[in-house]
Amino acid sequence: MTTYAVTGASGPFGHHAITALVEAGVPASDIVALVRTPSKVQDLADLGVQVRVADYSDAATLPDALAGVDTLLLVSGSEVGQRVPQHTNVIDAAKAAGVSRIVYTSAPRADTTELVLAPEHKATEEALRASGVAFTILRNGWYIENYLGQVEQYRATGEIVGAAGDGLVSGAPRADFAEAAAAALVQPGHENAVYELGGAPAFTMTDLAAALSAATGTTIVYRDVTPDELVATLEGAGLDSGTAGFVTALDVATKRGDLFTDSGDLQRLLGRESTPLADAIAAALR
Q: Does the domain made of 4-140 have the CATH classification 3.40.47.10?
């Protein structure tokens, strides 16, 4: 019997991963959901999943949380700027608890990319390698859901304004990446492997606008601007300068190709094609 634990289980990625494990035939009693607030995963507890309290920032919570765990899915934290110490806490505790393998959700080409989000992931990958614990690194591409929080704005204005040019995004729904993570947890042969995960076919922001138009029945176009113009537009919409600069940096990275991969690793882990952009958007908006 193997015991699998998933951090951040109350978040959408962790929750999807646990659901995928159950659907893959793992007994719920062999799965541990690690959360800060157990009440947020009552549905998982009702399935028979073990629920334990674990806080990335509170190392004292981690030994009991990881006791008896064989394989751990470390879902990267959401607190940008705090990830390295938080992830290191979990890695250290996992090693002390005798966890045999850690699967980590990283960023595309984390060790070489200029992507603004990558340095914390690169540092976590280095901590994993230094730990001596077997690892599987999943360099997740962009979640299509990242673009869906502004749908009403796009419908109201009829446009997506960005600085991504014709940059390609190898995006897929979060659930696809979580299903791949579950596969990497339970399948043999993924020890000390690094996978570049991305959806196919890749899409541009013009493609995104077209898919949103079809799904909403509203004509939405993509309007490309310079990075400076995008910063000014975002600040004019009420974003502070730091956030506007961060969002713009992501668009610049997209144009540079940082969110594209042709590796096929996601599809191999899934054992199927990833969900196309139009299908993912239509399902999400339903």
A: no
